């Protein structure tokens, strides 16, 4: 474990300490794993009101080219999603792929709203992957598209059913945004970039803020009794209930988007052309299926099955897969897990066993998300 | 009745040759919200430091060790249905199991309440 002195601090570090957070090393940063409320109450509070998350450890970067078509084309050489078609003010989830079609990282891409920003795409990548991502992206760009790494901004998320009403008090135009839209906002006079998205399955925003103003924005939101500070512990249980992948666990450099069951990130044009790293393999998998698939798993009892737990067919001893994420789902009030199983055993309702401390616990392949997502869709 | 504590943050209340065992207030505060407890089987013979029970919080699973040699005589079924009791009343209603002492001399090496308090302050 890294010494505390070697760990990086986000612009909200002092605020976390002041609020009584329990700090732990995470991806090279000293991050709050929980606040005095505790993981369970933080989780439940987010689902019924609004939680504030510091995600400043994640990587923020710009791709900057002469026009949208050029920048989008450059990014498309690395990802299997439509970027050319991404409209101003829209955001998209995608994955960086290696030559085997496996996932180097998952990321969010947004295209700025303003026409003077044409040719710019904003990337948000995982903290633990960012250095490697930047190297790969920079190496793949043509002369006229540059990668600009953003080091001087914080990133916070406000998530939950009351996130929008609280946000609107400080930045009224936030209310006009739909799910997966991004735009600049004035938050109490501070210029920020917000997207209506997140990692909890709830409505909410992610807000990129100049580092020096991050504490002011966080404090303004936390001053509202509808908002509480939430740590990484509840962030993990929230995303797990929402069926969202954690990079390095549920998807990694050995899984393709097809095996990872996230083909929603691939649009038709790319799926037909296969013009991305590992395209041939991914297209073959799309046509013929894969050996293994990521599935949701619900256990019958109360014992959680955690990452690494073996998956078996009842009555047999053979290990057919492993749990990649698992724990207790506070909103569901039951243990939840996800893992990889052979595709012929991936059907919803298939009975399996998860081995915990030598004991086989009955489980079933289940639909994800485990808790319904509540994203905000604008009325047409 | 005498109360003893271990470095693994367990408490024991000894009456005659039976010890009631649970985890301390400090242990529950470190674990966070408990969501599952696995109890040992009645009649199981255990050695000191064997893993005999499991307590899971939202975050992680932790073991509960046998503080002494002996035989498990009862598990607290309340915790199976209401694991959150471990957070509410760890040193009372939320005891984990009772064991018949196999070697009462082992009690001498355990900590008193005052010793345990001093030990926790060093952590």
Question: Brief overview, please?
Answer:
With 380 residues, chain A is of the alpha+beta class. Chain A has helices at 13-18, 39-48, 68-76, 130-140, 163-170, 214-222, 232-241, 268-273, 279-288, and strands at 22-26, 29-34, 50-54, 59-64, 91-97, 103-110, 120-125, 146-150, 153-159, 182-187, 190-195, 204-210, 227-229, 292-299, 310-312, 321-329, 334-342, 351-356, 359-366.
Summarize the topology.
The complex is a heterodimer of chains A (380) and B (123).
Chain A: H1 13-18, E1 22-26, E2 29-34, H2 39-48, E3 50-54, E4 59-64, H3 68-76, E5 91-97, E6 103-110, E7 120-125, H4 130-140, E8 146-150, E9 153-159, H5 163-170, E10 182-187, E11 190-195, E12 204-210, H6 214-222, E13 227-229, H7 232-241, H8 268-273, H9 279-288, E14 292-299, E15 310-312, E16 321-329, E17 334-342, E18 351-356, E19 359-366
Parallel strand pairs in A: 3-13
Antiparallel strand pairs in A: 1-2, 3-9, 4-7, 4-8, 5-6, 6-7, 9-12, 10-11, 11-12, 14-17, 14-19, 15-16, 15-18, 16-17, 18-19
Chain B: E1 2-5, E2 10-15, E3 18-23, H1 25-31, E4 34-38, E5 45-46, E6 51-57, E7 61-65, E8 70-75, H2 78-81, H3 85-88, E9 97-101, H4 113-121
Antiparallel strand pairs in B: 1-2, 2-3, 3-9, 4-6, 5-8, 6-7, 8-9
Function (chain B): The glycine cleavage system catalyzes the degradation of glycine. The H protein shuttles the methylamine group of glycine from the P protein to the T protein.
Protein name (chain B): Glycine cleavage system H protein
Family (chain B): Belongs to the GcvH family.
């Amino acid at each position: 474990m890294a010494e505390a002195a070697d760990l990086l601090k986000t612009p909200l570090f002092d605020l976390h300490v002041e609020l009584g957070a329990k700090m732990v090393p995470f991806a090279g940063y000293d991050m709050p794993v929980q606040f005095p409320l505790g993981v369970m109450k933080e989780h439940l509070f987010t689902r019924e009101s609004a939680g504030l998350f510091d995600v400043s450890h994640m990587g923020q970067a710009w791709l900057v080219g002469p026009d949208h078509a050029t920048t989008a084309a450059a990014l498309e050489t690395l990802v299997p999603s439509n970027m050319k078609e991404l409209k101003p003010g829209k955001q998209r989830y995608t994955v960086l792929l290696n030559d085997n079609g496996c996932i180097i990282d998952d990321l969010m891409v947004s295209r700025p709203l303003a026409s003077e920003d044409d040719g710019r795409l904003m990337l948000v990548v995982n903290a633990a992957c960012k250095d490697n991502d930047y190297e790969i992206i920079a190496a793949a760009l043509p002369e006229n598209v540059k990668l600009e790494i953003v080091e001087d901004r914080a990133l916070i998320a406000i998530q939950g059913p009351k996130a929008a009403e609280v946000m609107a008090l400080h930045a009224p135009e936030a209310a006009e945004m739909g799910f997966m839209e991004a735009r600049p906002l004035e938050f109490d006079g501070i210029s920020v970039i917000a997207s209506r998205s997140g990692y909890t399955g709830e409505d909410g925003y992610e807000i990129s803020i100049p580092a020096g103003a991050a504490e002011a924005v966080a404090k303004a939101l936390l001053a509202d009794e509808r908002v509480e500070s939430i740590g990484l512990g509840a962030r993990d249980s929230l995303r797990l209930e929402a069926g969202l992948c954690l990079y390095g666990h549920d998807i990694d450099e050995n899984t393709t988007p097809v095996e990872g069951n996230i083909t929603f990130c691939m649009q038709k044009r790319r799926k037909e052309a296969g013009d991305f790293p590992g395209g041939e393999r991914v297209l073959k998998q799309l046509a013929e299926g894969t050996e293994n698939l990521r599935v949701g798993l619900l256990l019958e009892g109360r014992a959680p099955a955690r990452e690494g737990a073996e998956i078996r067919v009842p009555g047999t001893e053979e290990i057919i897969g492993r749990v990649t994420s698992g724990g207790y789902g506070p909103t569901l009030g039951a243990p939840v897990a996800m893992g990889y199983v052979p595709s012929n055993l991936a059907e919803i309702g298939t009975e399996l066993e998860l081995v915990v401390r030598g004991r086989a616990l009955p489980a079933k392949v289940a639909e994800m998300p485990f808790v319904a997502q509540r994203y905000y869709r604008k009325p047409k | 009745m005498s109360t003893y504590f271990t470095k693994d943050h367990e408490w024991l209340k000894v009456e005659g040759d039976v010890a009631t065992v649970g985890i301390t207030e400090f242990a529950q505060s470190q674990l966070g919200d408990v969501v599952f407890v696995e109890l040992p089987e009645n009649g199981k013979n255990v050695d000191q430091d064997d893993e005999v029970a499991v307590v899971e919080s939202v975050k992680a699973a932790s073991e509960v060790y046998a503080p002494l040699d002996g035989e498990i005589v009862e598990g607290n079924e309340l915790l199976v249905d209401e694991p959150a009791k471990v957070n509410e009343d760890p040193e009372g209603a939320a005891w984990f199991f009772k064991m018949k002492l196999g070697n009462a001399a082992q009690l001498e090496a355990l900590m008193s309440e005052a010793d345990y308090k001093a030990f926790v302050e060093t952590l």
